User: What shape does this take?
Amino acid sequence: MSIKLEEVTYTYSPGTVYEIHALDHVNLEIGQGDFVGVIGHTGSGKSTMIQHLNGLVKPTSGRVLYNDEDIWADGYDLRSLRFHVGLVFQYPEHQLFETDVLKDVCFGPKNEGLDAEACKARAIEALEHVGFPKELYDKSPFELSGGQKRRVAIAGVLAMNPDVLVLDEPTAGLDPQGRDEILDQIAYLHKTRGISIVLVSHSMEDIAKYVDRLVVMNAGKKAYDAAPKEVFAHYKELETMGLAAPQMTYIMHTLKEHGMDVDVTATTVEEAKASILQALGR
Amino acid sequence: MIRDITLGQYYPADSVLHRLDPRVKFIGTMIYIISLFVFKSWGYVLGTVFLAGVIVISKVPFRFMVKGLKAIMFLLFITMFFNAIFTPGEVLFHIWIIKVTKEGLILAGRMGIRLVFLIMGSSVMTLTTTPNQLTDALESLLKPLNKIHVPVHEISMMMSIALRFIPILLEETDKIMKAQIARGADFETGNLIKKVKNMVPLLVPLFISAFRRANDLALAMEARCYHGGEGRTQMKPLRYTGRDYAAYGILAAYLALTIAIRVFLHW
Ligand SMILES: Nc1ncnc2c1ncn2[C@@H]1O[C@H](COP(=O)(O)OP(=O)(O)OP(=O)(O)O)[C@@H](O)[C@H]1O
Ligand SMILES: [Mg+2]
Assistant: This one.
C-alpha cells in the first residue's frame, strides 16, 4: 500500500474572482504502516490535501497515485479506492443519518456489497474498536453527545476495513479524557491491524505523543516533512507560521539556555522528566 | 467572508457604479427596461450607447455581462423563430411550407435585441450590487406599502436571511456529499427510484443541519431583542449623496430623450 501526491496543486473556483489557491505543488508519500501527523494554521490547506488521498477532489494539476496507479486515469475504479482509504471528516453531523447507530455504521460495508450478517459483524467490531458502549447501539445517532457522535463517525469509516485511515481533527471538541481515549484507540489500531494513519490535528501535544512523521502545511505548501523532533527543532520558524512547538520544547530550551544539560528534543512530559532528573544527577 | 456573496453574481471592483446607492441602480434598471419597450427601431442606438457606457464605467469584464445570456439562449431562439414565421405581412421567401415575412424578421430582431439588452442591463445591476444591498434598496423603495399594512421589513428580512443561507446550505451539501461518498455512497448511477433512495444519506443530515441553523439564528435574534421593523434603525442606512443625484439626473435625461425619440421621431 502506498499513496503518493506528485506536484499536486488545487485551486477553488478557478477562473472567477473568488479563486483561492489552496494547494501549491505538494509532494507527499504515505507508505504501509506509517503514522503521519499533519499540522498547519487554519486555512493552510490540510483538509484540501487529505481530500486528495481518496479522490474526493481532483487536483487542478499534478497526480495522485495509489499503489503506483494514477487514480485519475480513465477507467480507474475510484469507488473501490474509497474502501481502501477511509476518510473521517471534521464534523460527524455530516455523515450520520440512519435511525440507529448500528445501521449507520453498517452504511459503509453495505455499500461495499457485503450481506447483512457480515455488515453487522463489521459494525460491531468497529464500534468496539472506538470504545462505543454496547447499550447505545440502537439509539438514534442524533441523540448522542458530541464525543459519542464522533466515535460513531469514526466507526462508520473503520467498518469498511480501510488500509489507510485518514482523520481530520478527530478530537476537536472532545474533553481531555475522550480525546486521549480516541487517540489511544487509533494508535492501538495502527499497532494491531498495521493500518496506516494520517492524523490532522491542531494539538502539538497529541502530535508529539503519537505520530512517527510530521507534515507541516503553510499557505498551501508543505513546509516540513520529518520526524516530530526534527520539526520541533525549528520552533522559531513554526511560530512565524502561526504554530508553536509543544510546551516541553520551550521549557527544555530555556533550561538549556540557563546552563542545564538537558535533552532539548524531549517533547512529552515523561521524556522531559527523565531528562531533567538525569541532568540533576538523580 | 468571500463565500457570503457567491449567490447572485456580484463582481467586486472599484467603480462609480459600485458605489452608487442601490436604489438608484434599481430604479435605473427599471427605466432602462421601460426604454427598451418604448423604442421601436433606431432608438436602440441610444439604448446601445447607454448600455455600453454603463458597462465601461462598471469596470466589470464584458464576459461576465454575457454570462447571463447563456441561460436564455433557448428562449431567445424560440421567441425569434416564432416571431419570424408567424407574423403576417409581405412575404420575403419560403422555406418548405414556412413563410418568412419582412414584418416577422423586423419583429424577431426587435424581440431579440430587447431580450438581450434586458438581460445585460439587469446583469449590470446584479454584478455591481450585493444581494444584501438589493434587499435594502427594495425595503426602502417599498416602505410606502407599510401604510397599507404590508410587512415590508419582515419580507425583506426574510429575503436577506434566505439569500444569506443559500450559499451556506450549498457548502453544507458539498461537505455532506463528500462525507457519504467517502463511505462508498453512490449518487450517480442507477435508475430514478434508486437515485432518490440514494439521496436519503444526503438529505437527512442536510435537513437536520438546516433546522439547527434556523433554530440557532432565531435564538440569536431573540437574544439581541429583535422585534421587527418598528422603530428599527440600520447599521448602514441608505443615504443619497451628490453622485446619486447626478445619476438620477442622467436617468431623467435618458428617459426624456427616449420618450422624445418615440413621440417626435417615431423611432
Ligand atoms: N469549498 C471551498 N470553496 C472555496 N474555498 C475553499 C473551500 N474549502 C476551503 N477553501 C479555502 O481553501 C483554503 C484551504 O482550506 P482548508 O479547508 O484546506 O484549510 P485547513 O488547513 O483544513 O483549515 P482548518 O484548520 O481551519 O480546517 C482556505 O483558504 C479556504 O478558505
Ligand atoms: Mg480543515
Summary: Residues A 12-13, 20, 22, 40, 42-48 surround adenosine-5'-triphosphate (ligand 1) (CB under 6 Å).
